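Margin note from the TA: students keep mixing up input and output lines. Inputs are the sequences; the output is the structure of the whole complex. Example:
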Amino acid sequence: MNAIIFSAIWGVLMMFTGAFVQSKTLPKYLAITGAALLFLLNGIELYNGTPIFNINGMNMLAITSMNLTFLEVIFAATLLFFMLSGRDVERVGEHVSEYFALIFFVLCGVSLSSTYNTLLLLFLGIEIMSIPLYVLTGADKRNLKSNEASLKYFLMGAFSTGILLMGIAFIYGGNTNASFYIDQIHLGVGKMPVMITVGVVLLIIALSFKVSAAPFHFWTPDVYDGAPTVFTSFMSTIVKAAGFFAFIRLFKTSFGPVQGQWQNLIVFITVATMLIGNVTAVFQQSVKRMLAYSSIAQAGFMLLALFALNQTADDGIILYSAAYSLATIGIFAILIKMNDYTIEGFNGLAKQQPLLGLVATICLLSLTGIPLTAGFTSKFFMLTAAVENGHKFWVVIVAVIFAAISAYYYFRVIQAIYFKEPSSAEPVIDAERVSGSFKILLAITAILILILGIYPEILIGWAHH
Amino acid sequence: MDIKAYIALSLTLFTTGIIGVLVRRNAIIVFMCVELMLNAVNLLLVAFSKMHAVSPAAKASLTYASDAQIFVFFIMIVAAAEVSVGLAIIVMMYRNTHSIDVNFLNRLKN
């Protein structure tokens, strides 16, 4: 509750800053303050159990410790993102404070879509999350690639919204309780009524669009590649994790009892996502595009939580969001500073910038899922959840095989960082773009990844608080 | 009137919208087809709301039956927000390329 209200207020405040303050650096510090306050306010609500701003929500919001812990992860990742890449947001264009304001509106949508208790708020949360992102994708107004990415994202997003709404309408029609509350959907005895079945299929399609799961992933590489790199970093981590959390909560609360009737569809989507994401990523030359495909591949792993739908999966999705966001934000923060986005551009990074090379390696190892990193523990949780589910054990084996394939394209970058000579005499990174504080923050990111890898209970404990 | 007639009309509109999005190349027309999809949903929600209001099973929770009518207003508001952002994006693209052909998008792949 705190987060929803405060993020909207702070977004408006940032917009007014843009109108009345000329300073170009102030918005960044204001945004960092806002993210820190969001983290703090949400933490207080998680710790005390009572929000500061209390509104009678007619039970339309489900404020549980699990949802709040997830939001806490999101705000921590946003804070880190602002501190690491705030300066690069300033370089995108002239309207710096508007970009930050839009990010705060996205955070408002994220807060709604991870605490909703009715289909109405699910729809509103997803829309509030998506509409500012269409604008952010096209923030680089003169760049044709950015324009096209923005138009494509917008058309695909609006299209999937239509499908989502059709699904909601059918579920409402087939539900004899005539209710939008997700815990009051009446599924009948035995087989689901036809209208509910149609609704469930449409919802799966629409939400797969939003989280870019195959075969509805085709917009992802183009949009992630065309958007300004800072915003790619934001939307491929925080927004995607939020989409997954909403997806899983809806299907667990409403359709969990009849999982047997839709599980096959999810299995198909999971395997297809892992296959397409991992295999296509192998052939990419640009690291930015490779990370876009890797985000599809990681989405496949997160879908295992939807396949399993048990307590371990709930813990796993929070841990996975944290691990994936930390590692991807870290690697993107380094990628933005590079002069050349291809894999050859990383040649000899470790010799010129030893710390950056080391942090990039830790992030990539975490994305691969090497033990001692957060990526390993989160993948372990996901696989455990899938095994506990008890059906279709082969999905777990397929997942492990694809995790091994993913090592190929992540390790190619590590190989370039450590074992290759720079291809030209120019430095891979302009030294003046790498400040001391940036290095310290990167080191903190790497340490956080290692801590979460060794003591995942820190995070899980809060979810059961 | 029977609810099936409403479902049929709404699905026809919805399918027209989907086919339009997939087939047409003009960004404005694609956009109009998306709006058609949303309006098909509005029609269906109102029809279902009426259906639930007269069915004996839902009489007990009559307040819920009107929820769908409120939902329709939210869809209209969100659609309006989407129109404002979408038209701005299309204008921005037109300024740079002097075209609103969606086929332009394929250039990104190379």
